[in-house]
Amino acid sequence: MVITGVTFADSSMLNVMIVLLRTGRLVLAGTVPPQLGRLLDVTQAGQLFTTADTVEAARGL
Asked: 28 and 53 in contact (C-beta within 8 Å)?
């Protein structure tokens, strides 16, 4: 999932991310934007997700 352009993140987005994580492989590609970073910090969910700098790097994981 390319996350670089995320400008708004709330519990609904986090729910979708967790569903995707549980049903398959999910790697967050790109720099984590402040909104999403705050959501992941507050909920302590950041440790659940693998991140990569680029889409190409994410495909290699």
From this structure: no
Count of alpha carbons within 13 angstroms of residue 22, beta-carbon side? 6
Of the candidates 38, 40, 35, the one whose C-alpha atom is nearest the C-alpha of residue 14 is: 40
Percent of the chain with pLDDT over 70: 100
What distance in Å separates the CA atoms of residue 34 and residue 12, rounded to the nearest whole number? Answer: 17
pTM over 0.70: yes
Cβ atoms within 10 Å, residue 61: 10
The beta-strand segments (E) located in 1-61 are 27-29, 50-52
Q: Which amino acid is it at 57?
A: A
For tokens 């693998």, what's the residue? 50
